[in-house]
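User: Hey, quick favor. My workstation is busy. Could you predict this chain's structure for me?
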Amino acid sequence: MSSKTLKPTEKKNDSIEDIDLLRAPVSDDQGDLSPRDAADTGSDSGSEEGTDTSAESDSAEKPLNLPEKFWDAKAGQVRLDALIKSYLHLEQKLSQSLPMPQGPEDKQRIYRLLGQPETADGYQIDCSHGLFDSDSELNQKLFALGFSAEQAQAVYDAAAEKLVPLILDVAGEFQADRELDRLVGHFGGVDKWREVSRQLLAFGRKSMPADVLKGLSSSYEGVLALYRMMTADGAGLSPNGGGAAAGLDEAGIKALMRDPKYWRDRDPSIVAKVAAAFEDMYGDVK
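Assistant: No problem, here it is.
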């Protein structure tokens, strides 16, 4: 059988023997890569990952709302030692604070810590001013409200400073009204009393210091004593013997009336002594 010679222009049929896989082109979507390509790709990937990790480390930012003192900007991380120390300090401080009372027993415990005595009788109230004494009923009310000993004392001090003067003023006005009614009755009516009071005021201003006159004018007995002095003015000693029974003459009586215990404090013993001296010297005024 003679062989045919192929002409150069004729197309050669492809067969499996004619395929060269080593020289065949490879597309991007080809399955597996050659060992060389895989090696190159792995090298490039590792290089890129290393670059990204370094970038993350350099660009670390402080967490939101984290105080500056707990952030190490140079290291790019939280200062755990400072954070732990601050937390322990806060925990210690909270443990020392008073918790909210949950019931009557908790309230009593807190009251004791704040200075409340064991019982209402434990209040040691200082009433050295002499205006009033400690009141057990009031102390019981203060104790029920949880008042400390210091707070209870403050209540009493405030009463002595503010309320007592007010009460004394009201009582003084009430007493003055009663005394005035007695004087009006004693001298026979409003018109006669007005005339007598005018004369007494003129006599007192002329005869004695202003503080003594004020003291005599503040009570029923003092006004009667002033009246006796006015009616006896210019007569010298009393016809009854000049106050021998009381051991005082007119000058002695006036000196005694200048004593603040008489005109300011209304000391009963001194008031009685002055009244007895006037009675002995001038006789009673009816």
